[in-house]
Amino acid sequence: MRGSEESAALQSSTGNIALEHAATLWRIALLVIVLLAFGLRAYRLDFQSLWSDEGISLQRAQMALPEMLGAMPVEHMPGYFALLNGWVRVAGESDYALRFLSLWASVLAVALIYRLARDLGAGTDGHWLTMPVGVA
């Protein structure tokens, strides 16, 4: 009996190692997808000049926070503009810096899509569901 117990323990540990190895490979795949999403979004981020809505956002972000909140139209949510206000003070007012905040949000969305897919039961298919979001 002792030999079969050792054999079962060995198979169990081998199975655990294989599962850990597979999990590591899937984590690496997710990291590659997120890095690809970042690279595709960051490449030539400032190639085009600011669009009118981006210019308006920059103009609002340059205001003092109380002034900006007072000038906001009722239909606009102030959260993004308040965040952009702080971001512009830290990162600067270049086209690249202005767009970089949205870049981070979109890359974070890629990782969150994976997490949502996994939590909803997609398992490893979450990677395949995340890929189109990452390269879009």
List the helices and strands and how they pair.
Elements lengths: L1 H41 L9 H10 L3 H7 L6 H14 L3 H28 L2 H11 L1
Helix pairs in contact: 1-5, 1-6, 2-4, 5-6
| Global shape | elongated
Using DSSP, what is the number of strands? 0
- One letter per element, helices H and strands E, the order comes to HHHHHH
Number of helices: 6
Structural class: mainly alpha
Largest sheet: none
Helix content, binned percent = over 70%
Estimate what percentage of residues fall within beta strands.
under 5%
Low-confidence stretches: none
Structure notes:
Helix content is 82%, strand content 0%. The longest helix is centred in the N-terminal third of the chain and has 41 residues, at 2-42. With 136 residues, the chain is mainly alpha-helical. Helix 2 packs across helix 4 (78-91). The protein has one domain (2-135). The protein has 6 helices and no strands. The mean pLDDT is 84.
Summarize the structure.
The chain has helices at residues 2-42, 52-61, 65-71, 78-91, 95-122, 125-135.
For the structure shown, list the relevant keywords:
mainly alpha, 0% strand, 136 residues
